[in-house]
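Researcher: Quick one. two chains, 638 residues in total.
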Amino acid sequence: MRILITGAAGFLGSHLSDRLLAEGHEVVGMDNFVTGSRENLTHLIKDKQFSFIRHDVSESITVSGKLDAVLHFASPASPNPKSPFGYPNLPLETLKAGSLGTFNTLDLARKFNARYLFASTSEIYGDPLEHPQIETYWGHVDPIGLRSMYDEAKRFSEATVMAYFRSKNTDTRIVRIFNTYGPRMRLDDGRVVPNLIQQALRSEPLSIYGDGLQTRSFCYVEDLVEGIYRLLISNEHQPVNIGNPLETTILDFAGIISRLTNNPAGFDYQPDNRLGNDPQRRCPDITRARSLLGWEPKIGLEEGLLRTIAYFKSKMGLA
Amino acid sequence: MRILITGAAGFLGSHLSDRLLAEGHEVVGMDNFVTGSRENLTHLIKDKQFSFIRHDVSESITVSGKLDAVLHFASPASPNPKSPFGYPNLPLETLKAGSLGTFNTLDLARKFNARYLFASTSEIYGDPLEHPQIETYWGHVDPIGLRSMYDEAKRFSEATVMAYFRSKNTDTRIVRIFNTYGPRMRLDDGRVVPNLIQQALRSEPLSIYGDGLQTRSFCYVEDLVEGIYRLLISNEHQPVNIGNPLETTILDFAGIISRLTNNPAGFDYQPDNRLGNDPQRRCPDITRARSLLGWEPKIGLEEGLLRTIAYFKSKMGLA
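Model:
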């Protein structure tokens, strides 16, 4: 297949590009580098099957040649208000990537009669009142909250994807991506994994916000990409959760990082000043992915963290 | 003030235009007639203070001369899947009016440093789990449901309006409009008020879907317009519910219509085949409107219905 990926210079987009190339597909990457990184593309552009278009998806998209699939992954994705790459500091960019960007990519898929896959998120469940989150759960999102530029844009995109599927017969798919970690995460986007690993590698105490008992379910990026690829080649049109159902408290998570990095500095408890409505728990029900795609995560937390720590070491000049 | 209203040929837009003209403002109406009606403009275009631009708000908007206020009311608004004017049959138009249309009107307000008012809806509360609905309630909406092209577009618009308010200092307002009725409702858009009144005026039995015990809170259009006008001239930036808190069952409502029209034909109970997730109850908490705007509805259900019936009689050639 010849496949367009928007957000190809991002953490997930670049890994997905790797996988698609490895499967023998031709990949057209697109990014505007608002949060994506040129560095994530350096190995990709050496591949003859990879080409790149620098473009903002909120502007009308033209691609020469035919496309067989369109994957819309472009969007700021970090909730951290202190990072310049956090969506709270890129509100209009985030809202446009998840509305104009969605229309533009869907129109492109329609034009080529291509299959379409939208990168949705566990954030559409908001601060969930049900655990674990199953795909039929409607979510609990504040439409005017401080995270709403992201949550509502992703919900709007899902509604739009389903409208194209239902009224235009566009061959759509929706993946709801839960917390993912691995090499090529931005060091500077303020998310918990890069923050903790960097502190640990600097032998600093690890910052724990609040009591650290809030849980996350961290999926290693290779597992995630496997699930997305299976969804892409499937014919499933309803949303599918892809994430690791193993719930870990931030405290346990920080403990494992300390151990793997031999960091003796311990924890530094901070007041919980994260962005409003930061959910206390988030955990995917992956029954649908298991039964429809035969997918489940394979890589354990320690193994995934070791690989991620190795990447961060190298990025920080410590390797 | 010189005020742009999108959706000026619609039920609410045309009444609001009347009111603004009566207050001495200059009104620029805009509509693409997808669901608006030319007939609603016939009396307006006779007014020298009124001008009209035929335009689709999902395309970039240019207006000559300065604007002091921008009111974004354009959108299909009937949930009826059987009507060609229902949003289930206009999914992309609805999604675009509530995304591209919102960006375009906000950009226009920003350009002129004008105040902005967005017509949101009680539908952002979805099928609510709390009664009555207060503005701080986050709502209960299925992002991929059969009504999501409308509900999610309105929620997305609210998120966008708040993003412009917070990050661009745009002088925004959000009104959440509950069920409204009155003259100039479309006879053919399949909503309950025109349906029941037309049946009554034809001396037919009134169709009741399900047991008729689902409630609605019907606000007469003149009351609604008063509330919107007060919000427009206020400096309130948080969403404000405007609607009538008097909850009435559909059965009671139909009974009043039968009596006022002297229709002896009774009721015709039908299976509840309305669009998925049609809420069982919807009722505004108007504490915020009362305290911030000194507003509450004044026109009783009988008086409002008598005026509405008179309008329908005339439209049906029965007056």
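The first strand of chain A starts at residue 2 and ends at 6.
Researcher: Thanks, that's what I needed.
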